[in-house]
């Protein structure tokens, strides 16, 4: 082992290199972002969707009477070609069109037919169940806790088009069970090459990186996906009914049980009755959606006739303990119903939240760390978040309504940035969640924040004590709208866990504009090392793919 050099570790861990988003904007009437009608922090998918919309109305094929149509469309096409390419976009952001002089201007005069944009463009951009992944969020998404099946496609391949309707169906059917993604390799060529994609479509499972080589029909895809699910369906019969339901180890979660007579047909059963039955695949899907929050069991009412008769279960029915009965037709709907039946998150009063924060500050062992969902107005969080307390039993999960106490939310700089999930640590620090707001994502954030301290800096903590020279500080100046910034924060946590002698902090430049302009932050994210009060190293960071 060589000598321990923490800063080399930071360098290795963060692979800091390039400039991400430059703040200064280029003002010209031909601004590429304005041409496409998008924000400067738009994602590749936003860019593609915006371009497609314009292409369908402004394309010369559609405007044969407009002599300027070609000229106009070339400009729009050029804006799109530049902004969809990460490297060109960075050059454009920094230097405007001047920066593009050396890049193939000529090729941007060529464009595709209207029909192409209509049918062959971003196959899954309009499907909410299929997550369109790109270079910026790929790693962070697929190498987490969930299982992903990702379709690497090219809009120019026939088989990809043939597969599209099936893939959409598949994504709908698997919603909440496993994650379904798509990568447009026409736009994200380097990502596809780097993931070893050689032909289209390639279906790859993550995080294991196994290729799916089975038949590309719904039945086989679903069967394959369900084999990957790790949730359990408890088999219940007359003999074990009481023991299972009273098992002290299973008391932490409520139960939902499917009572079913359908799988083995009986004479006299009407078709209507049989249709209502959840088959074993559906039960498994339900178990996957409710995993770790609700136990799922199934009773075969043919084999356990006496049990079902005693409980008066005559038809295929689903019963949650203790007493709700649900009629159903598919697992997704049942999952929704079950989530609705779970207890709602507790709403804290201002006094309760203040007291909890004081107790955390005093390190009162009776006070669990807090995960608080701050809301405003009447918008309630999705029922899916009712799973959260079960996913993080070591923390207390609650809701706080900023409409009832704006002062407290002002103090946390939350006003105008709601809803926002915040984690309150032992010791009094807090941290904000910037990622997706599914229960599993919030749980992962809270666990990470619990394990390693990254200070959220604001005018009360910056410049003092950061620049007082007591400690070495590494501060990340970021915007929650920049995707490479959001990739960096989990990395900071990883490094903070390993480096005890350096303090880590973040400044959200969309909230604390004065701090960032005073530090002359020109791009996101920027890292500054404060050693004996002098900022010594300044890095702009870009995370590279594995
Ligand atoms: C950009 O320039 C135009 C005129 O050249 C001006 O009207 C507009 O306000 C400017 N926009 C910004 C954001 O400076
Ligand atoms: C939050 O408080 C406001 C004002 O008291 C109220 O109108 C709103 O319905 C509350 N929101 C929720 C989700 O309860
Ligand atoms: C911090 O400053 C001290 C003294 O000026 C110096 O010895 C040390 O190497 C510096 N650390 C870093 C990481 O620059």
From TrEMBL:
One of its GO terms (cellular component) is endoplasmic reticulum membrane. GO terms for biological process: autophagy; IRE1-mediated unfolded protein response. It is found in: Endoplasmic reticulum membrane. One of its GO terms (molecular function) is oxidoreductase activity, acting on a sulfur group of donors, disulfide as acceptor. Residues 31-96 form the J domain. It comes from Stichopus japonicus (Sea cucumber). It is a single-pass type IV membrane protein. It comes from the Eukaryota. InterPro entries: DnaJ_domain (IPR001623), DnaJ_domain_CS (IPR018253), ER_disulfide_reductase (IPR052460), J_dom_sf (IPR036869), Thioredoxin-like_sf (IPR036249), Thioredoxin_domain (IPR013766). CDD domains: DnaJ (cd06257). Residues 112-231, 412-546 form the Thioredoxin domain. Pfam families: DnaJ, Thioredoxin. Plays an important role in regulating the size of autophagosomes during the formation process. Its main location: endoplasmic reticulum. Residues 1-24 form the signal peptide. This is DnaJ homolog subfamily C member 16. Keywords: Autophagy, Signal.
């Amino acid at each position: 082992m060589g000598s321990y050099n923490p800063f080399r570790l930071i360098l290795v861990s963060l692979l800091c290199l390039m400039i991400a988003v430059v703040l200064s904007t280029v003002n010209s009437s031909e601004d590429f972002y304005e041409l496409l009608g998008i924000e400067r922090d738009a994602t590749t998918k936003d860019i593609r969707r915006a371009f497609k919309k314009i292409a369908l109305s402004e394309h010369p094929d559609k405007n044969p009477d407009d002599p300027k149509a070609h000229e106009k469309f070339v400009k729009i096409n050029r804006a799109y070609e530049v902004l969809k390419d990460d490297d060109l976009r960075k050059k454009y952001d920094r230097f405007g069109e001047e920066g593009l002089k050396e890049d193939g201007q000529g090729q941007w005069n060529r464009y595709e037919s209207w029909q192409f944009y209509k049918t062959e463009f971003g196959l899954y951009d309009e499907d909410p169940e299929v997550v369109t992944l790109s270079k910026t969020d790929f790693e962070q998404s697929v190498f987490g806790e969930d299982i992903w099946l990702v379709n690497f496609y090219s809009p120019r391949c026939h088989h990809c088009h043939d597969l599209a309707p099936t893939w959409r169906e598949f994504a709908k059917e698997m919603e909440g069970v496993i994650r379904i993604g798509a990568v447009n390799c026409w736009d994200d060529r380097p990502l596809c090459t780097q993931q070893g994609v050689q032909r289209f479509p390639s279906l790859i499972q993550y995080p294991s990186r196994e290729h799916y080589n089975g038949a590309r029909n719904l039945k086989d895809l679903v069967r394959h996906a369900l084999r990957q699910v790790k949730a359990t369906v408890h088999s219940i019969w007359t003999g074990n009914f009481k023991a299972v339901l009273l098992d002290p180890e299973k008391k932490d979660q409520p139960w939902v049980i499917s009572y079913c007579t359908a799988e083995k047909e009986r004479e006299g059963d009407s078709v209507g009755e049989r249709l209502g039955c959840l088959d074993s695949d559906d039960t498994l899907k339900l178990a996957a959606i409710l995993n770790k929050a609700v136990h799922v069991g199934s009773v075969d009412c043919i084999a356990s006739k006496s049990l079902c008769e005693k409980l008066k279960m005559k038809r295929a029915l689903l019963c949650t303990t203790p007493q709700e009965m649900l009629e159903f037709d598919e697992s997704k709907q049942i999952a929704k119903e079950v989530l609705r039946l779970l207890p709602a998150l507790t709403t804290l009063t201002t006094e309760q939240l203040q007291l909890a924060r004081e107790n955390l500050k005093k390190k009162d062992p009776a006070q669990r760390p807090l995960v608080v969902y701050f809301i405003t107005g009447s918008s309630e969080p999705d029922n899916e978040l009712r799973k959260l307390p079960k996913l993080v039993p070591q923390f207390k999960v609650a809701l706080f309504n900023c409409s009832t106490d704006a002062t407290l939310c002002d103090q946390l700089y939350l006003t105008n940035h709601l809803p926002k999930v915040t984690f309150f640590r032992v010791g009094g620090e807090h941290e904000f969640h910037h990622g997706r707001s599914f229960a599993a994502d919030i749980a992962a954030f809270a666990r990470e924040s619990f394990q390693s301290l990254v200070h959220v800096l604001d005018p009360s903590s910056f410049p003092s004590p950061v620049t007082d020279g007591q400690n070495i500080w590494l501060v990340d100046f970021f915007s929650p709208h920049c995707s490479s910034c959001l990739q960096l924060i989990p990395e900071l946590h990883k490094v903070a866990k390993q480096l005890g002698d350096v303090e880590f902090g973040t400044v959200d430049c969309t909230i604390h504009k004065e701090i960032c302009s005073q530090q002359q932050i020109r791009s996101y994210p920027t890292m500054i090392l404060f050693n004996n009060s002098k900022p010594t190293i300044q890095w702009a960071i870009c995370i590279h793919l594995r």
